Amino acid sequence: MERLQKYLSECGVASRRKSEELILQGKVKVNNEIITNLGYKVNDTDDVYVDNIKVFKEENVYYLLYKPEKTICSLHDEKGRKTVIDLIDTKEKIFPVGRLDYDTSGLLLLTNDGNLTNKLTHPKGNIEKTYYAKVDGIVTIKEINILENGVILDGVKTKKAKVKIKKIDKKNNKSYVEITITEGRNHQVKNMFLSINHKVLKLKRIKYAFLTLENMSVGEYRKLNIKEVKKLYSCVK
Prior knowledge:
Layout: E1 2-3, H1 4-10, H2 16-24, E2 28-30, E3 33-34, E4 41-42, E5 48-50, E6 53-54, E7 62-67, E8 95-96, E9 105-111, H3 114-121, E10 129-136, H4 141-149, E11 152-153, E12 156-157, E13 162-169, E14 174-181, H5 188-195, E15 200-208, E16 211-212, E17 221-223, H6 226-235
Helix pairs in contact: 1-2
């Protein structure tokens, strides 16, 4: 027996959190009964429906996408904008692991493995995510130290970060900075730089845990191999 939301995520319906929302919205039936209890448990003999469509467990698949700018990290978009799902040719119902902003490019994982998604996105996971940022103004060593030691965002201090100045363009008054964080707050990198009075002009995620964008172009994707999947699981034990 397993919780309904976990079963839904393993069927590739959505992440566990999104599956919980579907349950609370009364969109999930088990054996023709609407279930709104997040503690409800099912087994493989139960008939489970989402929006009156029966769902089944699929073979787990794992993709690494070089996300372009101007794409949405969502299954659908009300405004008709291109989503990251549109970029991957697969029959499985995959969903992004976490998200990148509409105007942020870079490394994004997508899968139908709800268990791994939950582990990777849980605050206790401490997965390192590295970004390359082009920011307005000249970032100083003092400001780098401030970012590394944590800044206050929405009343809560960020965890320690790793920050390196990669390039200073004095002529155009721009800085290029590499920053590694282990959290996933909304617009976190952009807000961290704003806290030291620097606006992020361009942002790309270049590394997630041990995974990189090596030999990939914008918009390309590839499947993770079994060794990479096992290594991801080992990162969050």
